[in-house]
Specification:
Helices cover 41% and strands 14% of the residues. It is α/β, with parallel strands linked by helices and 311 residues long. Strand 5 and strand 6 form a beta hairpin. The N terminus is likely disordered.
Length: 311
């Protein structure tokens, strides 16, 4: 009888140990990597110029924060989820097809297979980000490919941002309709990203939310109504204080150009701050690195925004 009781206790304790092990392993796959963790965080970005923008200063922040970080990129300018998948599909059908190897001569399968990746991010092309129908079935297929090649990696969605408030265009919200404002673009794209995150059971890197909070808060950009946009005089530019987007600039042949989509230095900094806190679970407010083009007071505000957005 004593032996039976002892065997039962041993079995019960073994079960409890196994249960705690499972819970512990699940927690390590949570949204953030533990702060101060000694091993290197290996991040794989599947995206376009927006993922480049949002991670531009991430290595600088990681270095100051004594965080070890390796970034691999599968990025093509203007690339949607559909295009990423179709290029991967070409390589799956014929590994020697050069069209299926657009990432510096390599396919997505080849890049993903190089080493082990902790986190792999996906994002939609910003022009399509508000139209949830454009995500599928491509996001499912890319997710399956990632899981096949990197079964232990955590797939996350990099939430892209709305265009500047004075943009002349915004993202799709249906196949035949565009958003009519930056706020509408942010809301619709946010809904789409969250629907996809729920579908895949994964997390969101809320760069888009950070952009919107910063763009609608006390440091919000306001269009310069005193500037002569119809007949500009080189090299004058409108006042673009607190803009997170590239905005107006002089191009070749002294032509005034306008980019309301891509991030400027401040926007790249904000995106990197969000990524830093997401990856390492540490507030970027304690870091001192600030790009030269960003005023100190604005930089401090952006750090606070990033800290408040990442849960």
């Amino acid at each position: 009888m004593k032996t039976i009781r002892q065997d039962f206790i041993k079995t019960f304790l073994a079960f409890i140990f196994l249960l705690f092990s499972i819970v512990g392993n699940a927690l390590t796959l949570g949204k953030t990597v533990e702060a101060g963790r000694p091993d290197t965080v290996r991040l794989f970005l599947i995206g376009n110029s927006f993922s480049q923008n949002a991670s531009r200063f991430l290595p600088d922040l990681a270095k100051e924060g004594n965080q070890k970080l390796i970034i691999q990129r599968a990025e093509i300018g203007g690339c949607s989820l559909q295009k990423h998948w179709e290029l991967a599909e070409l390589a799956e059908a014929n590994p020697d097809d050069p069209k299926g190897r657009p990432y510096r001569g390599k396919s997505l399968r080849m890049l993903l297979s190089e080493g082990t990746w902790d986190i792999v991010s996906l994002q939609q092309l910003s022009k399509l980000s508000g139209n949830v129908g454009t995500y599928m079935p491509y996001i499912d297929m890319l997710y399956a490919l990632i899981n096949e090649l990197q079964p232990d990696a955590k797939v996350v969605l990099h939430q892209t941002w709305a265009y500047r408030s004075d943009s002349k265009d915004f993202s799709q919200i249906t196949d035949k309709k565009l958003a009519n404002s930056a706020k509408k673009m942010w809301k619709k794209s946010r809904v789409a990203y969250h629907q996809m995150a729920d579908r895949l059971g994964t997390d969101i890197v809320p760069v888009g939310d950070a952009f919107w909070k910063a763009s609608s808060g006390p440091y919000a950009f306001r269009k310069d109504k005193s500037f002569n946009y119809e007949n500009p005089v080189y090299p004058e530019l409108p006042n673009q204080t607190n803009s997170l987007h590239a905005g107006y600039f002089w191009g070749k042949e002294k032509t005034l150009r306008f980019d309301s989509h891509h991030a400027n230095i401040a926007g790249c900094f904000l995106g990197s701050l969000v990524w830093y806190q997401f990856l390492f679970g540490e507030s970027p407010e304690q870091l001192h690195f600030v790009p030269e083009a960003v005023p100190e007071s604005f930089a401090d505000y952006l750090k606070k925004v990033a800290n408040s957005i990442v849960k």
